[in-house]
């Protein structure tokens, strides 16, 4: 058969692959073994779903053999094998993953544990191989095929001989160079340690022929004599990490497991183990990534945990096991109480899944709380990655999860100058403080400069600074917490002044009502009211709102496509009655009403700037300023 070229781009990709995707050449063995494990899983799955006869899970295995003379490593499996078309499709195109296709095709029935999905693992063999030969026979087929390639210039597929279904992969190692001793991979101890290191939890036996020696009993000889013999040994322990006791699974093991299984380069931020006995027994091994995965906050991100029943994978991404607000959690759940054909009878198992899900939810919350209490620094890192998700969780489903999540929320406190929990905020409130004050804005710095914050801070009260769009919805959803109500710093009544102070302002307001109304009218509908402020100290003006919609909400809705004419904040211009700007207004009111209106406009624009809202007509604003000076 004529040699075929790899499909377009494949060569380039292969080159890239060999030279750069993996930093450790030794992982080639893991990749090849994982493919074998996938092939065994696929066969197993077939036997369950199609009732294929003659397959018994106990008979499935992987075998690794070496031939030092030929410089080859052979990895065999008696899995599903490949037809000629599949060989062509799966190994002729790099980045084509038969395993991913298999998953997609079987999506409706829900899928099984397939490690591969990127379609590059196989080619990692070329990091160490000068030639790879694949001999394979598909399950149910009577023809076998051989695929052969030296990596660089294409491959050939020919008919071959093979008795049983499955795949043999021959990896012919490159010659040693000064930097690299490929021959090391021919040593049994080396392969054994690689299998232990990377593939110990593969759920099928990985066998090797191990040379051993034994004493030959010869009664008349003086020196004991030994003879060598070969014994087949299973190298991997096959017990999945989550089935092992804490002592048998080191942190390093767990981290490695996580990184390989979930394709993350970094160790997880948190590893959670659960071993629950009861009405629904299950074991879970869960991980929280140490940074936000790519595309996490998009629709493309798929949440879900891998679901096993007594060590056999049933679904590779079971969404029902994890609530939306913890969708960043990855991991596996194994329960012997689930029957194997759960994928076809999911409805019957809803109750079991729900029980496990509720349990897992509680466990995750507990562990996060522990992290928050014992290791605040790392909790903050977690918060940077997934805090937004928790906030969404509070708002979602009409607040159904707010009680669960509110202890996990952090906000920046102006008093402590760091992130604090709501509980901590309330605990450290001075006795005289009635409310939880909060302020929204783009950044902590910008909020800190808002004039409205001054008086509250002067009182010795802290303010929670909120910089996410969802924050105001969170506050609305919570309403109150730990016995205290939330209060925006823009609220008309901050609950700070004494009755006497209140009376004072009211009196001044009444005295100047005509001027204030005149200013409002001259602002041409931009504000619904101009009033004297009780919350300003050194600054002349600030912009606040009346009604439900705040300035931040208005900004938020303005970013959402579509017309939202109703969602406008009712702006209020507040003026500091002790500021010279106010005295100046009063003077002008007496002398020149036109100039008074101009000054009102100038002050309104200043209030916009302070509130971080762009002014409509900067040129006019500048002219006004020089006109008045
Ligand atoms: P991935 O495993 O990420 O899908 P690979 O490049 O490792 O990509 O493998 C490509 C495809 O070749 C696999 O998806 C699978 O369909 C097929 N394949 C590889 N090894 C075997 C095997 N031992 N038995 C059956 N099919 C295999």
Please characterize this protein's 3D structure.
The longest helix is centred in the middle third of the chain and has 29 residues, at 346-374. The relative contact order is 0.06. It is elongated, with a radius of gyration of 35 Å. By secondary structure, it is an alpha+beta fold. The chain contains 19 helices and 22 strands. Helix content is 37%, strand content 21%.
What attributes characterize this protein structure?
single chain; 629 residues; alpha+beta; Heat Shock Protein 90; Ribosomal Protein S5, domain 2; Rossmann fold; 4 domains; 8-stranded mixed beta sheet; 6-stranded mixed beta sheet; 19 helices; 21% strand; binds adenosine-5'-diphosphate
Tell me the overall shape.
elongated
Under the CATH scheme, the architecture of the largest domain is: 2-Layer Sandwich
Distance separating the two termini: 92 Å
Protein structure class: alpha+beta
Radius of gyration: 35 Å
- Sketch the major β-sheet: 8 strands, mixed
CATH topology of the largest domain: Heat Shock Protein 90
Low-confidence stretches: 107-118, 340-347
Averaged pLDDT, please? 87
Structural domain tally:
4
- What is the strand tally? 22
Fraction in beta strands: 15-25%
Give the class-level CATH name of the largest domain.
Alpha Beta
CATH superfamily caption of the largest domain: Histidine kinase-like ATPase, C-terminal domain
Count, helices: 19
Helix content: 25-40%
